[in-house]
Amino acid sequence: xxxxxxxxxxxxxxxxxxxxxxxxxxxxxxxxxxxxxxxxxxxxxxxxxxxxxxxxxxxxxxxxxxxxxxxxxxxxxxxxxxxxxxxxxxxxxxxxxxxxxxxxxxxxxxxxxxxxxxxxxxxxxxxxxxxxxxxxxxxxxxxxxxxxxxxxxxxxxxxxxxxxxxxxxxxxxxxxxxxxxxxxxxxxxxxxxxxxxxxxxxxxxxxxxxxxxxxxxxxxxxxxxxxxxxxxxxxxxxxxxxxxxxxxxxxxxxxxxxxxxxxxxxxxxxxxxxxxxxxxxxxxxxxxxxxxxxxxxxxxxxxxxxxxxxxxxxxxxxxxxxxxxxxxxxxxxxxxxxxxxxxxxxxxxxxxxxxxxxxxxxxxxxxxxxxxxxxxxxxxxxxxxxxxxxxxxxxxxxxxxxxxxxxxxxxxxxxxxxxxxxxxxxxxxxxxxxxxxxxxxxxxxxxxxxx
Length: 451
Ligand code: NDP
Ligand code: 2IT
What we know:
- This protein is an alpha/beta fold.
- The protein contains 18 helices and 13 strands.
């Protein structure tokens, strides 16, 4: 049995269904790092893998709040503090009805290696709640965020654990969370990132993940000797923070982004999506994508119920480059084959783990360029780290300064991932490159810090 096989066996999962996505994320990393473990016995001697896959702690708490009808609502809150070998725990908060401990462990585990790849001093964590922000009033969101922070504030701090946004958590939620933290602790400090610019947020944090994914793709295509994105058709899924800014950057560089999706359906506008309209629908009105075709009748909206059997409509649109930016496991093996058949040359994961293992395997075996999430979407957390720096120094950087630093970080990650893959005999495989490079840095820090 190979090293990877041996290692996976050690971590065979129990019957906890919730942990499926966590094991999926862990298995990918274990399969990648075989060559590293073989190259130096110290990683086994210090039991790095055994230590890395167990979070330092999982905090779980009750969140009780009053809705607008003065009825009591109860949700569950979590913070998974996974690993702080490289810096304070750092990672987003997700508010979505599907949130459970398993999902947050998968996200927290990915975050350790992602944050390591940025080269910045940040450890890995993740948190959130099964609270559903959809359809809630601003006051309900505020009351929930206050109740959530009443418990969370005990465990976080600018040098301890610095949460940020993720699905369902944007500037509005971070603002309410920050306000409550400040009230409870009487301390004005950079305990959260993704804050609104008006009180301590970094310029470009909202744009950072989507822009960063495009910067990464540009560099990857250059390294791999492929044609650039300019003038090319690109498909994007999601219609939230990451997707909207990926579309925006694609448009700025002259690519044609023709799609987006939300939890109800897929929008396809062959002339390129009308981003101003999309932002109005999603950011101002928080409405369904279906609204778009009321303005642009030639665009096509496909509700989920009409998706082809076992596939997602968005990945059946011919494109040069695809950007899954919605959620985990949204691109399956059938979708991957549709992309390949339609001539797609490049897939960039803007979301966390959007491709299933089978999809990733199909994409890699057909020699498409493939930018894995923990490398390609690291721009968001990188600018979060810049926000921490600005807060600590009580200063503000310009948009251009942050953009330039983001571009450099994304290009450095891409180059390092490509070189690491080459060094370990898997040239062109950015999944293995990212896992080995990310793991090695955390592992070396853990060894240096002792047990
Ligand atoms: P948002 O909440 O802003 O947007 C999420 C989008 O994805 C929405 O359009 C939502 O649809 C759609 N979506 C969510 N869940 C599902 C689902 N189960 N099925 C179909 N569509 C779904 O989140 P973000 O854009 O911030 O996050 C998107 C992805 O990017 C996530 O995987 C997140 O972990 C990852 N990520 C985010 C970063 C950030 O800085 N925000 C950084 C790095 C990664 P609807 O509008 O109907 O809710
Ligand atoms: O998955 C992610 O990297 C994020 N949701 C952003 C984390 C952060 O701390 O900015």
